[in-house]
Amino acid sequence: VVEVLASISSKVASDVDYAKDTLRFIAKLNPDVQIHIVSDLNNIQDKVIRAGLVDGGFYVPEQNTSYIYSKSNTWEGSLLELINHELVHTVTEKSITEGHISQENLSKLNDIKDIIDNYRIDNYLDLSENVVDRLDYASSTNFPHELLSVSISESSIRNVLIDALGTDGLQQLDAVFADISTKQAKQNEHGKQNGNSSRNEKSKNSNAQ
Q: CA 91, CA 72: separation in Å to the nearest integer?
């Protein structure tokens, strides 16, 4: 499946090997996630999901499901990178929403956001329209959710971030993502184990009666 997704071309250059590695990394952290490919928006009854899919993808935490609309006129990257963009949300959203990110990581993300904003403004005339739009989206939309998703999943933006942040800065961003996503995966696994223990205990009590 990964090979098929990687073979689908995009309007902007993408690093296929990096995208494959990212997909495999996230799949290990969230093996239960569901990916729903949408071919026709009219088939989606939920208005919130349908509106979100105009941009290409939408993640529903309650379902642990990423909806993907590859026909979006907004998305210019590869289908694999679009899927990765949404999958990044699946391994970071809960920690961000519930405030489980360390102050140190949040401070690093704020600093990175400021650097990206200044870089985009200073180099506006030298950057493509798509790159400007994606950098703006990353830093100004639902921070830090989209900053992580864009920066981790979109190889064309990562190439620009090497210039903006430097190699060390990009590695620091990757390390923050790895820390947040790995800790969330551990919390999810702990929750599953507690849930299983609770169900087993109820079953024992029921049998005893």
A: 23
Per the CB < 8 A criterion, the answer to whether 144 and 106 are in contact is yes
**Dihedral angle at the C-alpha atoms of 136, 140, 143, 147, nearest 10 degrees?**
0
Dump pLDDT digits (tens) for 15-42. Answer: 888 999 999 999 999 999 999 999 999 9
CA dihedral 183, 15, 53, 184 (to 10 degrees): 0
Residue in the block written with tokens 């223990």: 197
CA gap 12, 183 in Å, rounded: 32
Strand order in the sheet with 34-37: 34-37, 65-68, 57-60
Q: Is the pTM of this model over 0.70?
A: yes
> Taking a C-beta distance cutoff of 8 angstroms, is the pair 13, 85 a contact?
no
Instruction: For residue 43, give the DSSP letter.
Output: G
Residue-wise pLDDT tens digits, 48-58: 999 999 999 99
d(Cα 181, Cα 92) in Å, to the nearest integer? 5
